[in-house]
Amino acid sequence: MQAPAVEVAGLCKTYRGGWRGPSVQALRDLSLTVERGQAFGLLGPNGAGKTTLTKILLSLVRPDAGIVRLFGQAHSSPGLRAQVGYLPEAPNLAAHHTGRSFLDFMARLSGLAPDTRNRRIPDLLHQVSLHDVADRRLPHYSKGMLQRLGVAQALLHAPRLLVLDEPIDGVDPAGRMELLRLLRNLAQQGVTLLLNSHHLPDIEWLCDSIAVLHQGRIVTSGRVKDLRATQGFRIVVAALPHRLQEELAARGFVIGLDGERCWIECPNRPGLNALIDQIRAAGASIETIEPVTHSLERIYLSAVAGGGSQ
Ligand SMILES: Nc1ncnc2c1ncn2[C@@H]1O[C@H](COP(=O)(O)OP(=O)(O)OP(=O)(O)O)[C@@H](O)[C@H]1O
């Protein structure tokens, strides 16, 4: 069996404070696996540790403890870096370049042979749909075009793993869709994608799997399909006594009112029978019980609020 694209185990990172400054524990015993060919979304609030994790994968930050392997090798192994492409959050693209001259400059900097450059650059410009504007100067590119150019630059070495930090941020809806389609095509061609983003609907559209980070730990992870499918049940009850409504709300159940009716969300199957018994014992009658699937946004919010306990 092939080793996963990314394997991280027991990763810890503390940024030491300077003279009397406070230390920050950015990652706390974090473990994660990304299989080859997956589009994997790293989610989490500001300061959760996403960028620290991606920088460790790229050997830009050194962890205090833990194991990091890419394609089965220690991530610092010679030659491995060439298999990883990186699109930083704010790529620095010099204004005097055109799209084509920028790619040529970056390809020379990273030592691609002239033959490879001459073949690869026109191919990449086509792949990211910038061939028609390849000779336009970069200040005349939209944010979406610049991000697609950033993806092309990250692909110059034909990497097997592409790490993208906020690739969709600030791009308008049409540009975002184009960028997402490009990323999905790459995943279909077998490139493993690891994206760090706050755009949950886009992550839901693109990614097979996600991990939600909070305060340096993973609070929820798994395949998007499975996470959405196991999100519980909605019970509709006629006239639930007020006392029980308050008690259930205090225990963290999500409750809504619909005229005389009331609906309660039970987050999982094991809790369902006990809840039904309790509603019946209070003399209320259950009208319907339906499974509910939640958006990624809902899964994310409940993971971050509850530390992943639901
Ligand atoms: N170089 C640094 N020195 C000190 N603290 C840092 C450094 N880089 C990050 N941190 C701290 O580590 C924690 C994790 O930061 P990180 O940038 O990894 O989070 P993030 O999830 O990427 O956040 P965002 O979504 O805002 O980009 C934060 O508390 C941050 O302030």
Automatic annotation (TrEMBL):
Gene Ontology molecular function: any one: ATP binding
Keyword check for Transport: yes
Alphabetic keyword roster: ATP-binding, Nucleotide-binding, Transport
InterPro entries: AAA+_ATPase, ABC_transporter-like_ATP-bd, ABC_transporter-like_CS, P-loop_NTPase
Residues making up the signal peptide according to the UniProt record: none
PROSITE patterns noted in UniProt: ABC_TRANSPORTER_1, ABC_TRANSPORTER_2
Residue span, ABC transporter domain: 6-240
Listed PANTHER family: ABC TRANSPORTER RELATED, ABC TRANSPORTER, ATP-BINDING PROTEIN
Family of this protein: Belongs to the ABC transporter superfamily.
Annotated protein name in UniProt: ABC transporter ATP-binding protein
Lineage: Bacteria, Pseudomonadati, Acidobacteriota, Terriglobia, Bryobacterales
